[in-house]
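To the team - pyridoxal-5'-phosphate complex, inputs and output below.
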Amino acid sequence: MRAERHTVLHSWCIQAQWDAPTVVGGSGARLFLADGRQVLDMSSLAECSNLGHQHPKLVEAVRAQAERLCFITNAWGAEPRAKLAEMLLERSGFAGGRVFFTLGGADANEHAVKIVRQAMHKPRGIVIARERSYHGSTHLAMALSGDSRTRTLVDPDAFGVSHVEPPYAYRCPFGSGSDAECGELAAAAVAERIDHFGVPGVAAVFMEPNAGSNGIVAPDTFWPALRRVTRERDVPLVADEVMSGFGRCGEWFAWQRYGEEGRPDMMTLAKGLTGAVLPLGAVVLSPAIADRVEHEMLYTGLTYCGHPLSCAAGVAALEAYAEEGLIERSRRLGAVLLQELENLRRRHAVIGDVRGGHGLFAVLELVTDRATREPLAPWPQGHPALKALVDDAMAAGVSFATRGNLILVAPPLVIRERELADALALLDRLLARHFPAD
Ligand SMILES: Cc1ncc(COP(=O)(O)O)c(C=O)c1O
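Output:
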């Protein structure tokens, strides 16, 4: 068999440089490599394997569903699809709403835009999103994303998307030195943008409430203020919970941190929805939005929408989160993680900022100078010393995710406390090795 690096076109990389080890199995937070080594996964792969690898309950649920019924289209009913929709509506408190199932996160976001434009009778209505966000890599999802890597590849105007500055408190684009105020100002910028276009022209505001791969964790003032300004203007708020949902931020859905005050009109889900054992995404509609499309033709659908195998995995995943108390566990361990990362920041001058930690998601932002906050590398570029750190970690059996000058720490919610402590101790040693004090 020819090696994969000669035959597969891999995502988000330079083909000629792809040379990754082959994974043949896993258990808990560990991956088993073909050469016999084990690797501790400190990023849940793409922040998606929230339940760890090869969770036995999920493997069994997929096997059992495969024996009963592998596939049926949306033109027919499917038991696991009905069950999963009901569970999602119940968990999110959207009883009376509806769920549209997709294949992953990007197409959930595409469908959310389609559905909200239809519901608001604004087929070309503007969608307000923000800089330093990520919503997927299909064309509309790329247009929604405020991602400097792909900015030249897509024209947001052509897709009716308008970006505002983000609630990036460490480098507040509104010039505030206060986290809380920066969050408020970012919400006010959305209000201003809505008012600039006029409410009749705006279909929705579309944002990540907490964790995101572009490394922003908004201050706690942001989401409630955003909800307030959108509600006052009767503009629907769509929460992209693809990464932040299912315990990643210490709640089933990150907006729940703010209680009813934070409830969006729609949310999009993927990743942790099945613990990533099978591809699945979802758009969850509030009862009010669902009512608006109830008697209208929905001109959309993908052959595999609501695939029974994926939905069976989703049902088992939701049961596992609840039975194993993983949402609460993530909240508890997230606080431990944040404390440990703060300790690292005290020891290593290269760490400019530590954020997150509401659940098992935290970001370390690296700088060359703490006083000036000069980034280790201009965003979104990486830095050779950070690459060397990650390579050394891998050689020691731990996989860390980085993005530009950020280290994203997001292990599976089932990681053992000892494993987490060991990984952070390794990070401490490697920061000392690769970023020694002057
Ligand atoms: C917040 C957010 N939205 C959407 C996506 C895209 O999801 P997918 O890769 O399943 O298309 C991602 C993926 O990282 C994400 O983090």
